Amino acid sequence: MSKEIKGYRQQPGKLPFAKPGSGGREPFSKLRDLDMIPESEGGKRPQPKGKNRHDHLLTGSSVGRRTPLVDSNWKVTGQAKYGDDIRIPNELIGRILRSPHHYAKIRSIDTSEAEAIPGVLAIETGQQHTDLFGVLPVTKDEHAMAVDKVRHVGDLVACVAAEDEATALEALRKIKVDYEILKPIHNMKKSLDDVDEPIHDRGKYHIGQSNVQKRVFQEFGNFDGMKKAHASSKEKWKFAGVNHGFTEPHAVVANWEPSGRLTLYTPQQVPHYVHRSLADVLKIPMHQINVHRTFVGGGFGGKSDPFPHEMCAAILARKTGRPVRITFDRDEVFYTNRGRHPSHIEMNIHVDDNARICGIETDALIDGGAFASFGHVTTYYNGVLHTAPYEIGSFHYTGARVWTNKPASGAMRGHGAVNSRCAVELGIDDICTQLEVDPISFRLANLLPPHSSTITGFRITSIGMRECLERVREACDWEQKFRKLPLGHGIGIGCGFFISGSGLPIHWDPNKFPHATVHLKIDMDGGVTIHTGAADIGQGSDTVVAQSVSEVLGLPIEMIRVKSRDSDTSPVDLGSYSSRVTFMNANAAISAAIEIREELLKATAEICNVDKETLVIGDRRIYQKKDPAVGISYLEALHKAQEDRGALVSSGSYRTPPMGGVHKGAAAGLAPAYSFSAYAAEVKVDPETGITKVIKVWAAHDCGRALNPLSVEGQIIGSCHMGLGQVLTEEMKYGRNGSLLNPNLLDYKIPTVHEMPEVVPIIVESNDPEGPFGAKEAGEGPLLPILPAVCNAVYDAIGIRTNELPITPDKLYKQIERKMKVLDIKSPLDLPNPTLNHSELQKALDERANEHKIRDSERKLNTEREPYYNGTLFGKISTIPPEEQDENWTLSVTPSEEYLANPRLAGSAWKHQEVRHMNKGDDA
Amino acid sequence: MKTPPFKLFQPKTIEEAISISSNFIENNEQFDWIAGGTDLLPNYKWHLNTKPNVISLALIEDLFHLDSTHIGAMVRLHDLANFADAHPIIKKAAASIASVLIRQSGTVGGNIALDTRCFWYNQAEEWRRSIEWCHKCDCDTSADCRVIANQNELCVATYQADLAPSLMVLNAQIHLCGPDGSRDMPLSEFFELDGIKRNVLKKGEIITHLTISDDANSWEGDYQKLSLRESWDFPEAGVAAAWRYSSQSPSEGLELRIATTALESIPRLHNNITNEALINKSTIDEIAAKLRLDVKPVNNTTFPPNYRKKMVEVLCKKALDGMKGELT
Predict the structure, then answer these.
(1) Percent of chain A beyond pLDDT 70?
(2) Dihedral angle of Cα B191, B197, B203, B207, to the nearest 10 degrees
(3) ∠ CA B124-B127-B128 to the nearest 5 degrees?
(4) What whole-number distance in Å separates Cα of residue A877 and Cα of residue A885?
(5) What is the rounded distance in angstroms from the CA atom of residue B117 to the CA atom of residue A747?
(6) Closest to A697 (Cα-Cα) out of A792, A809, A779
(7) Which residues of chain A have a CB within 8 Å of the CB of B310?
(8) Cβ contact A382:A412 at 8 Å
(9) Residue A16 confidence (pLDDT) above 70
């Protein structure tokens, strides 16, 4: 005991500051729940997938338990403050004047009449704010407001700040804009051609005189097998654009505070990029800006760009010296869009006589609308994200993203992977029909094993695909239903594969700066304050970070408080996209918590005079593992650790390991882990009307480890709903003149509760070696399989294979009519019902699947495993990269002359030369 | 989105309401009626034909009366759908309208007099500016019709309400009251073929109630609705059918009525088809095929017109499913 200071009035240390063991709602600490502690650590939790590097940190507090989201009480009591709920005294209302033209040059803007209206305080146009910004540093192409031309109906032209909304709207009507109308392009195919006035000018990087924003060419593998394929599925797909349909429209409040600094309140997924863009546009240093993320009423990727209206609010607030609030109407949300790209995808899948996928050829033309947004990445994702989970012999991908005079497309849940995944999974179903084999067996016999490398060099670690398929097959009673249900009733399977965090932080070198940083602070009250920049957009990122810390420190979750709103107090974080938060932020939080844990153990060891290594952390108590009676409370240990220094602080960060190839575009699709999923959907289709109703979905998702099963299930069910919208009803409809016909939630058809089937979520835990406690993502991947599962079920029901989404009744009925004509049938009720008689291949597939199952389980548990490269299934040596052992192995990222002589649709984008190369040609 | 300001009047009796409306007419002031507001207010928010004065019918008790033969104009759709003595066809149609929430507010009169709808009309002000305005609501701009170009004669906006065809096949009578007194007529004569004019209501006139004859219960029938979603959506096509065998022998004295909605600017009773069918003793399939040819949808709703036409045939068959096969 330290020496007491005699006569000192307050007698420090003798006053009961806080009762040992207090903290949390329960007065007494509980014993460790051994069911939550892995066997290898002396608990009872089985480890069929082996040990995890975080096993020793498990205290049984909250990881793996169904935990209500930590911010849910704010939401259910109506106290959560979303963008439009921020009310600062003396606020002004901002409104935006939008272009009524698809494409036009702005000759002049006359604001004098509008400015004269009493109550109008400021009107700003693009002329004064010409700095470009954009979410990706390589494709900055947006202005706060149009500078020289407007690029789509709804593009921003001017903004007004007024005392109230009615006055602001009146001012908008009085602004006179003189436009010179240009010829718009709405058809993405036309955007491949050279035109007089491309929608953007990228200078020397411009691709010809065309509207091609980004093009990708990739060829990997040995194409000999594909040339003599045993069976092929070829399909040309058309996918409509869809919008996120989040509940909360965009809203922003900008306030220049008395300190002279700007605070921007915005429901953002990626506050850090807004932070950077504001600094660019306002021309002030970043430290003069605080970006405050409000509660976010749904994002799904649609709130992850820095937006022009955010710039407008800040500009208006600076000009007027008063807070400015801008809230969108729903049609403005649709004009801002950033939804899924409308796409034309050609998907050819080839298999050899052993039912191995010897080739996938994909050509994706995607409609980016008027701005780049995330499109650079989307163009890659449409190809590279279907190089797994199947082992493939060759992969050919051509992708192009073009500008059109429509609202910009961008990132949306399942970014870039959803459409082409749907096409792949339908292609496989088609091939299985041709080969007369069961599509689940086919998949099980073609999966990559754990700890393998894909054809483009992605590093696969954990993979729960096999278990997903097996568990879904059992749960849905597949054997009794597939190809056996009556006409109009069907079942289908679909799989998914998605990144768990993008391997490349867009703004910096991953080798230099971390992806995510988390700070912890614990003062004498014992509560832990977490500072993180991860943006909780309803997906539960605050909760997962709180759970991670609570788990490591053995504290109930109510002792953890997460401060993630203000950039002033949060470490820089890349935000909520690419399903990175659980993987990266929880990992960072764990490493920060480990530092505190060490301090607590050290203090305990000192007080109890035992070896630190013999201690374990339980619920608010640290004690000897062998003799729990020897130990002290968390608070005692904490106060000991705080002697001489006060509050404990720590910082943890996460960085991806080095990985991936070196070819151009190798970083696109790289992730420290990947999620896998398999869904079966049961549908009923009315052949007389073409109306499809999904009646039940069995949804298995491999999330590594469910840190919070409640929210994993929520994500799976929510993903089903969102994906069902895209597959059945949702579509951004453009009229014959290019106008968006349905910018409202009555005509934009999000499925209602009536359309929502029962979803049986099945959580598969593959125990990822690098994920936090073994976890991977569960936010986006679960969306992918629902689309192909439903489409394949529609085929099972009425024998019609769709190639256009959404499958609205009118489109499906057209196909039904076509088929009736071909088969010369009078009534749609006489359509032939697909059947399946297994061919001889089926047995071979089942045998291969069984062998692979043993192979996979061995690889999973063997820590001394050798490398496994894609190509092994085709007879290559598994431990040597295929390009080093096969002379005919292609690895190319630019098209050959031969290809360009007869390119596919998106591939034809390569016919243009970049401007910089044209000039070179001239010089020569 | 901001509803433009308007002055609200809340009369307590029909007489008071009519005197307010007469007053406006005399002073040449514009006004609208409001019942449940589920149609009018969204349109106001979009600045569609907004008026400075709005007269609410919500406090006029006489309009709320509901019994098996009398349906007041202010009866909530939800109450009608759950009214035990209402005819099953009417109940089914009422229960199919929009969503539970909207049915709690929306009224029978409001549904009958529902504004016609069109992709080029039900849009925000800025949107309509981008297509250089719509003929139906921005008349002073002399805008052309955007659905069928170069015709400003007739507005082809679609009447997308569910109740009318079911009431028509039950031969409902509609009762109106206005500055020139009261009048009534068969519901089938209430509508006028023009998306702007819509019906026979004169300025200042309101629907007070509908009456259904005592013998309605001797009619069987069905209402079939086509929509993309089961809730919220307006019908893309709707077919109501009612029939009865009035004499002892089923082959003699069959009566049949069929009405459609959501296919044209007005709901329509297809007496020409049913009368002919009864004379020729046509099959149900033949009637359905004829009905398909008798409707002329245009491209201004969610589904394309040719699909809606084809589905009328299917809906008609489904609506007549309860009948015993052929009409012989």
Answers:
(1) 97
(2) 30
(3) 90
(4) 8
(5) 12
(6) A792
(7) 813
(8) no
(9) no
Region A198-214: what's the mean pLDDT?
96
Nearest to A153 among B130, B233, B311 (CB): B130
Q: Are B122 and B62 in contact (CB under 8 A)?
A: no
* Domain extent listing, chain A: 1-30+520-667, 83-187+245-336, 419-500+671-846
Rounded Cα distance between B88 and B241, Å, is 12
The strands making up B254-261's β-sheet, listed across from edge to edge, are B220-226, B237-245, B254-261, B268-269
pLDDT of res. A441: 98
Query: Which pLDDT score is estimated for A503?
Result: 84
* Token output for B88: 């099953």
* C-alpha–C-alpha distance, residues A171 and A128, integer Å: 19
Contact A810 B304 (CB under 8 A): yes
Where in chain B are the domains? 216-319
ipTM of the complex: 0.95
Rounded Cα gap, residues B130 and A554, in angstroms: 60
| For testing contact with chain A, the best of B130, B224, B230, B232 (most A CBs within 10 A) | B130
We find that the CATH architecture of domain B216-319 is 2-Layer Sandwich (3.30)
Q: Which CATH architecture has domain A419-500+671-846?
A: 2-Layer Sandwich (3.30)
Mean pLDDT for chain A?
Answer: 94
Interhelix angle A586-608/A541-553, rounded to 10 degrees, is 20
Inter-axis angle of helices B284-294 and B271-280, to 10 degrees?
150
Q: Residues A504, A506, A507, A510: what is their CA dihedral angle, to the nearest 10 degrees?
A: 0
Task: Give the CATH fold of the A1-30+520-667 domain.
Answer: Aldehyde Oxidoreductase; domain 4 (3.30.365)
pLDDT on residue A924: 40
As a whole number, mean pLDDT of residues A656-669 equals: 89
Residues B196-218: pLDDT tens digits? Answer: 999 999 999 999 999 999 889 99
Phi, psi of A543 (to 5 degrees): -65, -40
Q: Which of A98, A737, A746 sits opposite B131 (nearest CB)?
A: A737
The answer to whether the Cβ–Cβ distance between B232 and A165 falls below 8 Å is no
Q: Which of A459-463, A472-476, A679-683, A914-918 has the lowest mean pLDDT?
A: A914-918
Q: Is the pLDDT of residue A74 over 90?
A: yes
Residue type, A875: G
Residues A160 and A120 sit within 8 Å (Cβ to Cβ) = yes
Top residue of B44, B126, B234, B299 to mutate, by most chain A CBs within 10 Å, is: B126
pLDDT surpassing 70 at residue A920:
no
How far B226 CA sits from the closest chain A CA (Å)? 9
How far is C-alpha A74 from the geometric centre of its chain's CA atoms?
25
CATH topology match: A1-30+520-667 vs A419-500+671-846 = yes
pLDDT number for residue B247:
62
pLDDT digits 0-9 by tens, A673-688: 999 999 999 999 999 9
**Cβ–Cβ gap A752/B231 under 8 Å:** yes
Classify domain A83-187+245-336 at the CATH superfamily level.
Aldehyde oxidase/xanthine dehydrogenase, a/b hammerhead (3.90.1170.50)
In this predicted structure, the answer to whether residue B149 has a pLDDT above a threshold of 90 is no
Give the pLDDT confidence of B151-179 residue by residue, as tens digits: 777 889 999 999 999 999 999 999 999 99
- Tens-place pLDDT, residues A807-860: 999 999 999 999 999 999 999 999 999 999 999 999 999 999 999 999 999 999
Mean pLDDT of all residues in A758-783: 97
Q: What is the helix, strand, coil percentage profile of chain B, to 5?
A: 35, 20, 50
Give the mutation candidate from B127, B147, B234, B309 for the A interface (greatest A CB count, under 10 A). Answer: B127
Give the other-Cβ count within 10 Å of A12's Cβ. 11
